[in-house]
Amino acid sequence: MSLRILRLELRRSAAPFAALAAAAAAALAVATYGGSASVLVGDGRSQLLVLIPVLLGLGAWQARRDRRSRTDELLAATPRPSGVRRTTLAAALGIGAALGFGVPLIAAMIHAWLTGVYVPAWMVPALVATLVHPIAAVWLGLAVGRLMPWVVTPPLLVVGGFLGLVTLTVFTDPEGDADGRYPSAWLLAPGSSEGINAFERLTPPVLTAQVVWAVALAAASLLLFVPTRHLRGLAAVPIAAGLGGTLALLPPHLSAGVALDDGAIEEVCTSDAPRVCARRGAPLLLPYLVEPGREVLAVLRERLPQAPARVVAIYYGNDSQPGLPAPDPSVLHAEVYTDEAGRIEMTRDELTWTLLMGAGTLACPDVAPTEWERYATARVVAAAWLLGERPYAPESLDEDLGWVPPASVTHPVYDALRSLPRDEQRTRVAALREAELGCAEGDRLGLLLGDGA
């Protein structure tokens, strides 16, 4: 393969278009990843759902070049082997797709590492497996275009590839798999970002299987395009080897291939007091949480006898959870709703109210549905008492906070609590906080207003 001819192919083939399409997909991932290196790779894998069909079509269109220019018979008569020409063309398109997709992702990851963001070592094989898929896609397009050099082949590949990947995603998505026994083969799907998010990681055997399978697909696609008709059967060799390797490496169920990333769930705290802490895998959260968290700590110190001394964020939303923390009177656990990138999805007022619910406690998990309204009312009224203002109506808050009872219920309870002597108000709210910390049995509304509430 001549370097001069490779340079010509890089300029005059579809390689620049493949690089442009791949760079656009990678730029979308970089624009939405939110500073977390693992989320960056997960978003990059999600973008493959759109990028792969485009690259399939580009490869098929490029494979028709000789037929379009009516030079196929002329080139077949030249002394230069046709396999060398096809190898050079495949190398050009593969380089374009890999560089276009890889440069923005790698640059963003290096930037994250230089700015102190957590970049785990397992990101390297995950990124390698992600970058091989665009190469395999454009090579498979070349192979299909050579086998079926028709005008309709490129658009059919684009549409068919997109519909096929979306169908695979919709009908094999493990979301909602309660028992964790979903087949682990889902982890090999090109667009699957399962196990690659702010707090999860894939196990080393799964990462190895992903790399092996991606390389097998790329090798098989290349063997379908480059050799003569009689040698195309060699494409079955890397597929069989890759399939055997992945089956040996993958665990029987998906849940066994995904684990919490110990480095990502490590707490990172402010250096000055009062300390506010977040998980290392959500770098965008801590700066947002510091000011409102400290304000809430000041409110609790001013109005309750035993107030917490620091804030620690826990997460709700699309990110995996390291588990609910054990009750600790010295810690204010902040229930923070985040998106997949770890960005906060709450307004300042919503965050303040959430921090003060139940006098600064997490809701107990086993409240009976018949008792929920009274229980939630007591928690909301305790927060309102600490803030010194009537509770918000549910319609003024985000729908994720839909457990807030209506104002027609909370306002009378708030007024009744405020009608008690000042010291009595404080004693009852403090008693509610103590009961919530230990999830003690009993009627919270009765505890707040008296047994006749």
TrEMBL record:
Keyword Transcription in annotation: no
Transmembrane segments: 45-61, 89-114, 120-143, 150-171, 207-226, 233-250
Name of the protein: ABC transporter permease
Keyword Ribosomal protein recorded: no
UniProtKB keywords: Membrane, Transmembrane, Transmembrane helix
Organism placement in taxonomy: Bacteria, Bacillati, Actinomycetota, Actinomycetes, Micrococcales
Top-level taxon of origin: Bacteria
